[in-house]
Structures are given as structure tokens and as C-alpha cells.
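Final report, results section. Input specification for complex C-07:
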Amino acid sequence: MGMTYAQKLLAKAAGKAHAAVGEVLEPQVHLAMSHENGALVINQFDEIFQGTGREAKVWNADRIAIIFDHRVPAESSKTATNQKKIREFVAKQGIGKFHDIRGDVGGICHQILAENGYVRPGAVVVGTDSHTTTHGALGAFAFGIGATEMASVWALGRILNVEVPGTIKVVVSGKFPEHVYPKDLILHLIGKISAEGANYKAIEFHGEAIRNMPTSGRLVLCNMSVEAGATAGIVPPDEETQRYLREEAGVKEPLELFGPDPDAVYERVVEIDASALGPQIACPHTVDNVKLINELAGKKVQQIVIGSCTNGRLDDLEIAAKILKGRRVADSTRMLVFPASWRIYQKAMSLGFIQDLTQAGAVVCNPGCGPCLGIHQGALGDGEIALATTNRNFKGRMGNPKAEVYLCSPAVAAASAITGTITDPRGLK
Amino acid sequence: MKNGKVVLKLGDDISTDIVYPGRFMATVLPTETPQFAFADNAEFNGKLKAGKVPAGGIIAAGKNFGCGSSREQAVSCIKGHNLTVAAKNIARIFLQSAINLGLDIVICPELEAAEGDELEMSGGKIVNRTSGKAFAVEPLPKARQAIIDAGGLIPYTRRLLTTRP
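Structure output:
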């Protein structure tokens, strides 16, 4: 019986010829990523070694990545002290893939991993961040884990108890209409299968619309696969994956690409016609509460956020800059932009996007996760409504349980900034 | 799970942002996280901090409990109060972290329970002594039993480190 992409990849990483759905494996980890919560990982890691008489040494310092992004620059002495503890650990262990608070190589962990070529097709990637699913866009099996699980990975170099998941095949045909984007596709999918529709499963993306989609869009799909509960979202690697890794991520060494078997068995097939999609909005307080924009058009919003590991890439900033160039953010709202990395920020500067956005009245902040999860800048006031290109709208998410967050594409966010109300970009003159 | 009283009744899709709001994430140590458990639910958080929620109490939740972020604080903050989570089902990362840290969890797909109900675990089911109804319990993944038996992932990994070549 043929294997899905996830089955094949996990079998290979566990040194087996075949892996059945439900089988429990201990695959080797190719990359283990943490951010500020590395402080807790260090704590748990040290505890593992207590009483063993062994030196607490990570299994492979080259396979660990640590990126500061959640609270940068530090918002409190507590965070600064955690970051200091991590820097000391990085130096002591010799961890090379470390991205400190810097305007050249800093940024949001998931963008940093992708743009620096740390992720390869066929790799097992784990991260102490639920949006680690992002890296399935490059053909990795990538998933979020807790800090104690990561401490175990740092010690062993393997991840224990990985159940080979069943796979949902999502086939996307057609071409996206103007002003409709991968974000609209993934919101539509989550609305269709629900926030737990892919729990404990992998999602494999196929079809003409996926093959024609640049990696930046595939990263959006896999990033938000976890919002349907998926263990991993995966785009089987192809020529575009190679192009991205070679041209944008600077990867030189040979790449080993494979796909699912033609006779792979899927638990479910979901077919979507991209050409029939319109702009989508995920309404409070669950990501699967998805509506078409016309049901919400005209709703007043007090804060627009463009950015995050979901939609803070160069093409997202370009879409927003083109819509806002020569226009003005409405006085009744405020607009915050968080590019996903400093590399993107610098390119956006040289292309004039940052100037277009700030001249329209947007505040462009440094790359980071802050407002997406309400921990650093961009908090909402009581009763306020935000429209954001981020990935979650849970109660309390943007720092205030008495506020509401709606999720959308960068085009909808930019169009809505002009009017101060939820606005369909297809109607802009 | 031992027998206990439902101290908090929750619906479906309770995210880790509800269990442990993001703005307290700079606090990471299991000894410090319990003070922020359900921080946006002032009444319940107040009772927890005042010691008015007895240890062994049960949080009864719906589907997809613990969805969202991988923050382990959402697990350690509940464990710190010695509470059990009984849910219709549990999101993947939360379930694994609960097993890793030794938080008592029960998956009970049809569970019906209201705040104040007395629940009893017996022979693979939960009996709601208040309503008299019984509900089947889904066993935890078999492969995880070794971690539970070892007392959590830290002692389990320690043993692997010292016994495997």
C-alpha cells in the first residue's frame, strides 16, 4: 500500500522502509527551534541531567535554532533576564543558529528558519511554537511541541512517541481572482473543516493553485494548518521549493525531493476551486468562525495589524503599500505593520513600501510577534475591534479579553485602513 | 483520575490563551505559573489564588481543549493547583505536554457535567454521581504509558540517556 508524504518522511527519519498510520516512531530531529521560551527549555534540560553525573550537553549544537521574537526589544526586566540566560546558554553550548535582537539578521522565528535555508525537504523540524507547521511549505514534517518535550529532544536528538498521522488531502484547482490570496484559501478551509477538523492529522496540499503558488503563499497555508488542529501542513516539494531554497535562502548543497506515492491512501479528500473564492474573515473568538466579507462590510475597526509569521512577508507589504500609496489611514483607526524579518524590512525600505505605508499614516514597528498574542505593543482597549492579518482571534489574544479580533488577508486589512471599516478590496477605486 | 467535584465547567475550543493569557508568558517556571491560571476569568482565578478551590477538583471541558499555542505554562498552571482536566477531547500539543508534566487528564467524549457535580472514575468510565449518568472514557495513547509510569518526561528521558548506548 502506498504512503502519504508524512508516512514516507517519518519512515525515512526513523530509519524504516515503511511506516503505517498510527505507528509510533522515534524519528531523528533535523532542526529544533525555540524562541524566548528557550528559558524554560534550559530549565527542564538541566533537570534531565541532574543526578546522572553527566555534563548537560545538547546532542548537536548545529541542529538547534534559537530566535528572539516574542518580546523584542525586551518589554520587561523579566524578559530581559530570560533573554540573558538564553544568550549564556547559546555561548556555552556553541549554538550557531542564534538570532539575537538585531536589525540585520533578526526577525520572527518561522521566517528566519525559511529565509536562512535552515529547513530542507524531508526534514523533521520541531519547535516550541505551535506555528512550526509553517515549514511544511518547504517539504518538512514540522510541528509544535512543549518546552519539556524540547528539553528531551535537546538531550536525545530524537523525538519520542510520534504517531504517524493519517492525512487529509486538500486539492486546490483554478486561479485566484484579483484581491484573493492564500490567506483567504486557508481561512476558507479552516471554516469548512473546523478548528478540530484536522486534529492529530496531517494536511497535504495539492492541485494547480498550489503548484502555481510561490513559497511565500505556501508558508501561509502551512502556518495556519494548525488552526484546524493539524499536526503538520505539507506542500510536497517541487521546482518552486528548489527555486526558493536556492535563490532566496541561499542553499547550495544537493536537495533530495520526493512526493507521496501515487497510490497513497488518504483519510479524506477536500476539493476547493480557488477561482470561486472571495475575501474571507475569521470572526471572534475562533478561527473557524469564517464569513465572507460582504457579511461584515462596513463594520468599524479601531486597529489594523499587518504582519506576523503568517502575513508579514515582502509580498504582503507590497500588497498593502500598493493599496495605501497616496492614500491615508482613516482618523478613526490606527494601523500597525510588523514585517516578518529585518531582511524583509530592509527590502521593503529599498522598494519604497515602508515610505508608502508610513506616509499613509501606518506605524511600522520592528519585526516581532508582539501584538499577535498581546504580549508586546499593539494592545487593544476595552470594547475595541482589531482587523489583523495574524493567525488567531481567541478571546484575549491581542492583550484584552474585552476586545475582538477579526482575521483577514493583507489586501482586506489595507483597504479597511483607508475607510476605518471592514472593506472589500475588490471595490476600491 | 480520582473522584472529585467539578470546579469549573467550560465549553468547546478552550484555547491556551484562555488557560494562560499570553501577556503572562514571560513567567515560565512551574512554581510561578499557577497564579495566572485562567487569569481572564477573575472569579475562578480569584478562588484559585485564595485557596478556595480544593485540590483534586475537576475542570470539565468540551471538545478541543487546550487548542492553540504550545505554551507549557497552560499545563503547569493547572497542575500547580492539583486539578484534573476531563474533556471531550484534547488538542495534540496540550495532551502531550500534560503527559510529559504529569497533569491528570481524562478524555471522555460524551461527558455531561455541570459545576458542582460529583464525578467518579470506575472501570473505564466516569460516573456523574449527581446526575446518575455514566460516560465511557477513551484510554490515553498506549505509547505514552511508559512516560506516565516513569513520572513524566524528565525522569523518562533521564533513564533513556543513562541506559541507551
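Residues 280-427 of chain A form a domain with the Aconitase; domain 3 fold (CATH 3.30.499.10). The first helix of chain A runs from residue 5 to 13. This concludes the modelling results for the funded period.
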